[in-house]
Amino acid sequence: MKKYLMLVAIAVGFLAGIVLVNYLVGRRESFVQPIDFSHAVHAGKYKIPCMACHQGVMMRASAGIPNIEVCGACHSTPMKKTPQELLVYKYVSQHKQIPWYSIYHVPDYVYFSHRRHVLLGKLDCKLCHGDMAALTSPPKTQFLQIKMQNCWNCHVKHGVTTDCSHCHR
Amino acid sequence: MPKYGMMIDLNKCTSCQACVTACKLENNVQIVSEDDAQNGRAMFWMKMLTLEFDGDYPNIRPKALPRNCMQCDEPSCIKVCPVRATYKRPDGIVAQIYPQCIGCRYCMANCPYTVKVFNWDRQAQPVQMEKTYDPDVSVRPKGVVEKCTFCIQRLQKASEKAAVEHRKLEPGDYVPACVEVCPVDAITFGDLDDPKSEVTKASRDYRAFGLLEELGTVPKVRYLNAIE
Known about the structure:
The structure holds two protein chains of two kinds.
Chain A: H1 2-29, H2 39-45, H3 50-53, H4 68-75, H5 83-94, H6 114-120, H7 126-129, H8 148-157, H9 164-167
Chain B: E1 4-9, H1 18-26, H2 34-38, E2 47-54, E3 61-67, H3 77-80, E4 86-88, E5 94-96, H4 106-110, E6 117-118, E7 145-146, H5 152-164, H6 177-181, E8 187-191, H7 198-203, E9 208-209, E10 221-224
Parallel strand pairs in B: 1-10
Antiparallel strand pairs in B: 1-8, 2-3, 4-5, 6-7, 9-10
């Protein structure tokens, strides 16, 4: 009987451990974006191309999150006076960068270039980022998870190089 | 597919160590602590092997030999790697994949030129080094082997630039940092398969030799002997 109880105790402890780890890991990923930015309004309703704001797509490895000067190009005066837009206007008028939380992180040992994929490879943004024009609030998770398997699948499918040193550095 | 190689003219080399410095900065090679350096754990991808000094002051002439990875055509390091962390690319560059490396150091033991270095520890770098950090190269973690890669990141950038401009990679588009920085042009770099390239011409010079050629590693970094 004692042995049975001990086994149960170990099992319960194990499960509690899993729950605790999940809770801690989950907490680390939770974040609140400073502004409830709507891609649906910008890219969907007004049909602003992605490259207008994410200006590094064609030129650099990183597409980049637009800085406040890019926002200020249109929002130098409030247009619609919605509460979210007034928040943007506050940042613009104070010349302060919006502290966006970036959800796409390429590891240090991986070389990923947007220019290579979008300009040279002629890939659609939707392939990795999903239909951003349908999102009314900033994405909470990565659409295509940054995992080597995902890169590999696409590279094999399209017959692109799978040489290690082309991506790993 | 080109085959990259390098010729180092020992007649021109003044052993100023500009290549050593440039390599260290270009590739974020770690500066180790004093204790580690004394234990022979100093990290250099390009190293100046000083052999002796010739002549009397002020007409002194150091006999030195800049030594980086020989980028062998028959590399002995890739034959012993159990995880294929080091391998030869089709263009002849012997690449090292750091996330793949398990740090067994078999390749270091098997390299006749002792060009590979091991990250024994990860030291905090001097504050002055922050500005020289190269974002194109990863900072290697503790416990992996690293070596000269002919500045593979420069090849990547140059080929990407050439592709954007709709042209082929021309000679001179891609040179490693040591070649670019050499003040006396002692190092020539280029395509060994191109009969017109400078490096091919230099390799046919009567002074040309390779280090430990008798081992059959076929080094693609070769030297022009210093002749008085």
